[in-house]
Amino acid sequence: MGPRTADSASKNEKAITSGSCRGPAKPRLRSSSDGSIYTRRVVGVHGNTSSHVLLNPKSVLKRPVSTEELQTPGGPYIKKTFTIVGDAVGWGFVVRGNQPCHVQAVEPCGPAAAAGMKVRQFVVSVNGLNVLDLDYRTVSHLILTGPKTVVMEVMEETDH
Q1: Spatial contact of 60 and 119, defined as CB atoms under 8 Å apart
Q2: CA 2 from chain center: how many Å?
Q3: More confident residue, 128 or 63
Q4: Among 20, 68, 93, 124, which one has the highest count of C-beta atoms within 10 angstroms of its own C-beta?
Q5: Are 29 and 39 in contact, with CB atoms under 8 Å apart?
Q6: Dist CA 90 CA 148 (whole Å)
Q7: Distance between CA 82 and CA 126 in Å, rounded?
Q8: What is the pLDDT of residue 2?
Q9: pLDDT digits (tens, 9 = 90+) for 70-123
Q10: Helix, strand, coil percent content, the chain, rounded in steps of 5
């Protein structure tokens, strides 16, 4: 029998990847270096790994938002602070956009989801540094090169 591929994964492997966050462990999503493509690493029976493309998402934002709008007193946004402890895979979220950046995706079983982070939140600061005027690549670099524990301030639209 030859090496397994994702198309010929065993029933045991499929059961592992279909569990919930509290159930059996499942592989976490990884993004490419620029974060544009999400992949799932699959470990075969013989220990070899392969990556499979899952999706290339479009923006989750309903409309463009300016940094001025986010900072307007009495505006429709509230500030939240999250402390996210990264694990072996990462922090479990993806940022996108330019001035301001926003949370594009949150891995359901990752550290960011456990901290309460959600998509469509705007990133205000990373470890105390204001990032409202930075693009997502710079913000991602700050997170990736910083400490394992990241403190992030975000703005979230209120439910009116």
Answers
A1: yes
A2: 35
A3: 128
A4: 93
A5: yes
A6: 9
A7: 10
A8: 46
A9: 999 988 999 999 999 999 999 999 999 999 999 999 999 999 999 999 999 999
A10: 20, 30, 50
| Euclidean distance between CA atoms 35 and 48, whole angstroms | 23
Q: 5 pLDDT band (50/70/90 cuts)?
A: very low
pTM: 0.69
DSSP string of 30-61? Answer: EE-TTS-SEEEEEE-TTS-EEEEEEE-PPP--
**Nearest by Cα to 151 from 119, 123, 118, 132:** 123
What tens digit of pLDDT does each residue of 21-71 get?
665 555 555 544 344 444 444 334 444 444 444 444 688 888 889 999 999
C-beta separation of 126 from 143 below 8 A: yes
Is residue 48 exposed (0-12), middle (13-18) or buried (19+ Cβ within 10 Å)?
exposed
Are the C-beta atoms of 52 and 77 separated by less than 8 Å? no
CA 68 to chain centre: 25
